[in-house]
Design a protein that fits this description.
2 copies of one chain form a homodimer.
Chain A (H helix, E strand, L loop, with lengths): L9 H4 L3 H8 L4 E2 L3 E6 L5 H4 L1 E5 L3 E2 L3 E10 L2 H8 L11 E2 L5 E7 L13 E4 L10 E5 L3 E4 L5 H6 L1 H13 L8 E4 L5 H12 L3 E6 L5 H11 L3 E4 L20 E4 L3 H10 L5 E4 L8 E3 L1 H5 L4 E4 L2 H6 L3 H16 L7 E5 L3 H8 L8 E5 L1
Parallel strand pairs in A: 11-12, 11-14, 12-13, 14-15, 15-17, 18-19
Antiparallel strand pairs in A: 1-4, 2-3, 2-6, 5-7, 5-9, 5-19, 7-8, 8-10
Helix pairs in contact in A: 6-7, 6-12
Catalytic activity (chains A, B): a 2,3-saturated acyl-[ACP] + NADP(+) = a (2E)-enoyl-[ACP] + NADPH + H(+)
Subcellular location (chains A, B): Mitochondrion
Organism (chains A, B): Oryza sativa subsp. indica
């Protein structure tokens, strides 16, 4: 797999009691012991994840020890634990989690204190496996300092969802103010970010959501964020779908995180020569495309995976974009619903993320 | 539809007897009367196509009158008659056919005789509707002079199939000698051209054909043309499809003219980041793609339609490529099976093209 994630060697760096005693004499400092969410084998997250104490870790000359403040439970975190994600950490004793925010706790002796100081807020950038723990030691270059005057849950979640939304608006179709895009799964955090970022750039959005109780409330909420049109899938079960566009131009870009019929209606909305980008498959159904969509309508179908994008030479560019997104959060122009749950209630947060308590906001662990 | 075909106003140009009498006095010359295959409404080709005599047509100052020598019956010709093609000629009295070769019969007074002379072989370029008739009058600029030392059936068919094969090798993926491509429908004329053109450019081909009686003979024939591997679909019903590649690199390009399972096996063969181009749908089944093919395998799915490509600013480029392809035919490097059928047996040729006589070679009408 070309897009290997950076693996934080967190567990490996933790010292056994014996090794610790031996190495402490030469090491300048160590982290505090950490509490972490670990797994030793792949399987159902509520079965295989366990909370455990880890011993102190050595802080090398160029390392920074960070006390974590918050980290979300994203669906892809659960997929990694299940073992259905193409990039897997070494087992046993893998620490779960992929993004989050922390505060600098201690610096190695060779870290330039003009770049990072104790108390600074930092995120792992690119994100890296192992954020569900209270202390992390990693090289200074792996951390990106961010503004600390926004709610920590936004900083903790800025990379996986908002950055995906922003990249997909930039990377596939050259959109100009006045253009239209269409997306399904519009109530997701990526979907909500797409609506708000599109609005900021003068783009119109056609949004598709599931038929379910409360869909009118969901529609109203998305319209308040700036959505031009919001349709449930059943509303799109008509012959002339484009009549629903009204005065809007036909969409040049479609974003699909659902698959199945919800992807087919995106293809129907797209203009001649349009592009659909798949970045998720919530329905677990494949995308089905007619021959004429390719030949006569000249549609292009692509995919987006943030982890691959970030593993290429985009480190600086992604940090600049993250700063931009956090500025928008600070200005009140980018918002989405989350629930901060204390880390001590990890299993409750996990159950909520797994859908055991019905529809719940995105769960963010507060350490 | 952006990609409107050039419509030869052939039938419209034909003079009614009265108009002819009136206009002949001022016109410099007229074509001979023509025999043509016409249709007045869309429907099954063997029901709606009729052979009819057309009156003489005026040859304008800048026109060239061409006596047609040969024209093929392509599947897309039949789709146009059926009305399932997005570009349709005006009815009634539309002349069928889209490509072919003819011989210059007479020139309008303002046509530069250094560019075209009586006896020259010419093709409509870009191809245009209405080639199934014995005489065609069209502006000189609509004709492209070609070499006349190759069998006329190759000149008659060089545009729709061989040019499609060549464009698809050029337009989507930057292939270098040693690279591999995979295609289904490999026994089609496009498929046979892909094999031969790929071989000439140092590219390897993986070829997929239907399971049917005589498939071993078909395999041998494609290997003689230069195919590296030929598999029937049932041979590909295995878990580790890529083990069949042997020492060949994973394909960067896939060409699909079938759809359904035959498209799915192409997607399995493709390398990370590969592209599949759909240019036909012989199985009448759609293309089905998993979410992970887009996200984790980063596949791109595109379409190719020669008629759209030629309607853009590619006139000169396509004529150069046609000359190149006819040079290859002359050198014996590009060949495929066809059957020349006299125009007087049009309905027999049509029935063969419609599959009423089992598997038959491509039918080319000989005028």
């Amino acid at each position: 797999m070309a897009a290997a994630a950076r693996l934080l060697p967190v567990a490996a760096k933790r010292l056994t009691t014996t090794a610790r005693a031996r190495r402490l004499s030469t090491s300048t400092s160590t982290s505090p012991p950490a509490t972490a969410v670990l797994y030793d084998q792949h399987g159902p997250p509520d079965k295989v994840l366990r909370v455990a104490e880890l011993p102190a870790a050595e802080i090398g000359e160029r390392d920074v020890c960070v006390r974590m403040l918050a980290a979300p439970i994203n669906p892809s975190d659960l997929n990694r634990v299940e073992g259905v994600y193409p990039v897997r950490p070494p087992l046993p004793a893998a620490v779960a989690g992929y993004e989050g925010v922390g505060q600098v706790h201690a610096l190695g002796g060779a870290v330039d204190s003009r770049l990072l100081s104790p108390g600074d807020w930092v995120i792992p950038s690119p994100p890296s496996l192992g954020t569900w723990q209270t202390y992390i030691v990693n090289p200074a270059t792996a951390w990106h300092r961010v503004r600390s005057d926004v709610p920590p849950q936004y900083v903790a979640t800025v990379t996986v969802n908002p950055l995906t939304a922003l990249r997909m608006l930039c990377d596939f179709v050259n959109l100009a103010p006045g253009d239209t895009l269409v997306q399904n799964g519009a109530t997701s955090i990526v979907g909500q970010c797409v609506i708000q970022l599109a609005k900021l750039h003068g783009l119109h959005t056609i949004n598709i959501i599931r038929d379910r109780p409360g869909s009118q409330e969901a529609k109203d909420k998305l319209k308040q964020l700036g959505a031009d049109h919001v349709f449930t899938e059943s509303q799109l079960d008509i012959k002339n779908i484009k009549s629903l566009l009204g005065a809007l131009p036909e969409p040049a870009l479609g974003l699909n995180c659902v698959g199945g019929n919800a992807a087919s209606v995106i293809l129907k909305f797209l203009r001649q020569g349009g592009t659909m980008v798949t970045y998720g498959g919530m329905s677990k159904k494949p995308v089905t495309v007619s021959t004429s969509s390719f030949i006569f309508k000249d549609l292009s179908l692509r995919g987006f995976w943030l982890q691959k994008w970030m593993s290429s030479d985009k480190a600086e560019e992604s940090r600049t974009m993250i700063d931009y997104l956090l500025d928008l959060v600070h200005e009140g122009k980018l918002k989405y619903e989350m629930e901060l749950t204390p880390f001590s209630d990890f299993h409750l947060a996990l159950d909520k993320a797994l859908g055991k308590h019905g529809s719940q906001p995105k769960q963010v662990l507060k350490f």
